[in-house]
């Protein structure tokens, strides 16, 4: 009987020990440990942010005027468009330094990577072209003539259509990714800056900075079906300039950066109605979700910081100082 009691006590002790360790490990393990890379246009750097501690852990020196930025599909590298160096630099995530560059046209700004991560389409602002780059071969495959001052880039979920927006021509160009030819030009409001597809391919949204609207385009019909406008009490309409767009995976909610209005608009992506405005840093440019969509981070160019938005609460919870004139943002699992 005494032996049995000792064995029972030992089992209970072991159970408590391992249960306690499990609880401790669960508490110690970050719930969402992601890494964000922010391009700082004026300081010619990229800030690396740990989304668990919300701190800058590294500042990487890059080329002149970095803007568009995106992780490779395997998460091992980050591409950053350095406009004044006319190239796409490659950052090794493990080394946290620039290790290579890809050829581009003059003044690359934004780009889009295809689903396989093998082809990169780059908008070259000063050349009115979209450059096609073979990522593995590090070679240019060709270029597509588009409108004046191309910027926004987006690939449809099925990979068949590439959207490029031209700021001066005020168009969204629909490009067939197989033939690499423009198949449609859709007129939008003045100075279109960004394009974003819904995951179900039912809509593509294009922001017009000077026009002050977001055009909702039916990709099948290739026509504008709705225009979303923004009104903020106390602000002149000229100060409300839509740029970056973030769309949740379920296609129900969109967030639109409103530039010098220092606000992010929350939009019901089904009814296309603005439901809320969130005050962020000064001159908000672009944004990116954490992969679990718990947080949305915005780059604020004039205040030189990043705002962290709790997506569920629709509330800004943190501000992080980065380099000068933060512009682009990309986030992935380290």
Task: Describe the protein's architecture and organization.
The chain is mostly beta strands and 334 residues long. The chain has one domain (32-332): YVTN repeat-like/Quinoprotein amine dehydrogenase (Methylamine Dehydrogenase, Chain H). It is 8% helix and 51% strand. The chain is built from one helix and 28 strands. The protein has one helix spanning 2-28; strands at 35-40, 45-50, 55-61, 66-71, 77-82, 87-92, 97-103, 108-113, 119-124, 129-134, 139-145, 150-155, 161-166, 171-176, 181-187, 192-197, 204-208, 213-218, 223-229, 245-247, 253-257, 263-268, 273-279, 284-289, 295-300, 305-310, 315-321, 326-332. It has a four-stranded antiparallel beta sheet, with no helix packed on it. A four-stranded antiparallel beta sheet has the order 4-5-6-7, with no helix packed on it. Strand 8 and strand 9 form a beta hairpin. The longest helix has 27 residues, at 2-28. Residues 1-6 and 12-31 have low confidence and may be disordered.
